[in-house]
Design goal:
Strand content: under 5%
Distance between the termini: 52 Å
Number of domains: 1
Strand order of the largest sheet: 1-2
Radius of gyration: 22 Å
Number of strands: 2
Length: 227
């Protein structure tokens, strides 16, 4: 087996698998087969229906509170991911702690190798932060668009504004889901600390978990039943 520094061919294959699984499951969730839509796709129509009901709901305080709750969720995950990135950077800057843990677990203790393993986690988390920040901003745009919907549902502008708000809501949710997707794989990539075979196992487990929740969960059955 070819070995380059602290890594071997199986390490490279494991990382490639993790990246391909991350991209592949993300694409499948957003572009599922027409006969079996994912939870993400099913929720798109519910978001459009939300805006259709929003047109005639008076007062609209309920809708404003939901948007505020969604923005708080994106802010929370962005903050949590930033904290995790800070911890990862601290480990890269001073790997003594993680080297000590590796020694306790009888794992490879090469400092450079451990730093690069942590870097993979940070890369996934950094992508998540960017998605959460953009999602938060889009939900803000959605809130403004909702405020621009005339109170009179008979106003010819009202349906168009509500539709615009729905599409912004869907786009914001897409970014939020992509952020969560990256967090799942950031957690899965921690398996690399135990070695390349562990990374392969955690990657497959993470992918299976995401696919099950999007295509075979009880919540999906509930959503599809009402579609």
């Amino acid at each position: 087996m070819i070995s380059i520094g602290p890594f071997s061919t199986i390490d490279a294959l494991a990382v490639a698998l993790a990246l391909l699984a991350w991209a592949g499951t993300g694409w499948l969730i957003e572009h599922p087969p027409a006969r079996r839509p994912s939870v993400t796709v099913l929720m798109k129509e519910y978001r459009r229906e939300w805006m259709r009901q929003f047109l005639t709901r008076q007062p609209r305080i309920f809708d404003a509170s939901i948007i505020d709750s969604l923005r708080q969720g994106t802010a929370f995950f962005a903050s949590a991911s930033l904290i995790a990135i800070g911890g990862g950077i601290a480990l890269i800057g001073n790997p003594a702690a993680i080297v000590g843990l590796a020694e306790d677990l009888t794992l490879p203790t090469d400092a450079t190798g451990l730093q690069l393993r942590v870097l993979l986690v940070i890369m996934f988390l950094a992508n998540a932060v960017l998605k959460f920040i953009w999602s938060n901003r889009l939900f803000g745009y959605c809130a403004i668009m909702m405020a621009a919907v005339p109170n009179d549902p008979g106003d010819p502008v009202a349906p168009h504004r509500a539709q615009q708000a729905a599409e912004l809501n869907i786009t914001a949710a897409k970014s939020f889901n992509r952020g969560l997707h990256s967090i799942y794989f950031a957690l899965g990539s921690l398996g690399w600390l135990l070695g390349p075979y562990a990374l392969i196992a955690t990657t497959l487990l993470t992918s299976a978990l995401l696919i099950r929740r999007e295509f075979a969960s009880d919540s999906r059955k509930v959503m599809q039943h009402g579609a």
